[in-house]
Specification:
By secondary structure, the protein is α/β, with parallel strands linked by helices. Helix content is about 40%, strand content about 15%. The chain has 17 helices and 17 strands. A hairpin with a 4-residue loop joins β16 and β17. Bound molecules: pyridoxal-5'-phosphate (PLP). Pyridoxal-5'-phosphate (PLP) binds next to α8.
Length: about 450
Amino acid sequence: MVQLQHRQAQATGARASRFRCVVPLATATLSPSNAIKSVAKAPAVRDAEYTKKVIGEEQKYVLQTYARAPVVISHGKGAKMWDIEGKEYIDMAAGIAVNALGHSDAQWFAALAEQAEKLAHTSNLYHTEPQVELAKRLVENSFADKAFFCNTGTEANEGAIKFARKWARVQAGVDPYSAEATAPYELVSFTSCFHGRTMGALALTYKEQYKTPFYPMMPGHRLAEYNKLDSARAVIEKGKTAAVFVEPVQGEGGITPSEIEFLKGLRQLCDEAGALLVFDEVQCGLGRTGKLWGHELYGVEPDMMTLAKPLAGGLPIGAVLLKQHVADAMKPGDHGSTFAGNPLVCHVACTVFDIINDPAFLAAVEQKGDRLREGLKRTMGSNPHVKEVRGVGLLVGVQLDMMAGGVVEAARDMGVMVITAGKGDVVRLVPPLVITDEEIDKCCEVLGAAIAKVAPQ
Ligand SMILES: Cc1ncc(COP(=O)(O)O)c(C=O)c1O
């Protein structure tokens, strides 16, 4: 019902309103609701002094682990957002590939309000329907037999590391709870990969500067060269390797798709070595490539897959999907998380999943990705500093032969938010999957102007 009314709202153009969400229409079927009262109003426009004040207080009170852009974002709608001074941006970052449905989507909000009114959190001491509903969707639409929920991408990889290590101990036939027992425990990852910043995931992550301040790293990590099967073959060893972690399309590393033969070869090497193949689809999964799962592009299935960013459209969630043989190794008490899979986030994630898991939606992502890459080639391609425009679906990178920070800043001044990747020499575009053709075209024009300004020919 909510969905139907939302579609009607779209048809009548009500959704395009800048300052009022169409939430009243979408939530009209809900029982008396405080949520209806919280409909977005146009926030007050502030001046540059106010922006300075907020940034100053952020520096005073928040731990300084981020180099933030000097803007204070106030609100958003679809692929657009506004800062507190009223300046409009096209958001090609989407909270780093998170806001798949864009900002303040009416169905997303309706799902949030509907569940918030009933039950937000119980911990995993009890059963709740939304968690089961989400697990059912993920399992029935993937290679997996079980889902484990957590709260972030790094936590999903942390879980997958533990599942792989315990699976290897069970496979080895030792008592997994014996401190004296030994079994394969090595984990392999690849150059330029990013798997997160907690200690296990960080050990797998490539960039040394993320790791050295926190030495020593978790032992048992082996690094191989991405897209080089011989390099992988040299470190994947029977009796030593527990699991191999790989992003089917590398995100942070520079928007680099795996080669088909590489992923197929990894599958074979893992099978021969009795090791697990784990796909990290935290960034490339759930529709971003134009396929539901990034690995569908390759016809290779993993034993485990990690997910996070877009799954609840902006609420924190992560998940590990597992084949039954891995799931069988885990017992109650082996792993857990207080917040994980709570009914609020899972109910919203079901809505996000249902919208994305529609062949028409996924085909549109593919088309929009083609349009974006073609547009960027047209507007930026003649600049000698542009070496390549690459990617799949709406996971797009522009490889420069210089640092991309200047282009990012110039584009922001002109009203387009993009981010960097790789060694800082790639412009990364990961917009909301609902971005319009018009917004894509405008973004391409702006980026063409931005690189012409920063690096005139
Ligand atoms: C492929 C991949 N894995 C893991 C992570 C870590 O996710 P989170 O920042 O939610 O911990 C990221 C984040 O960018 C990622 O791109």
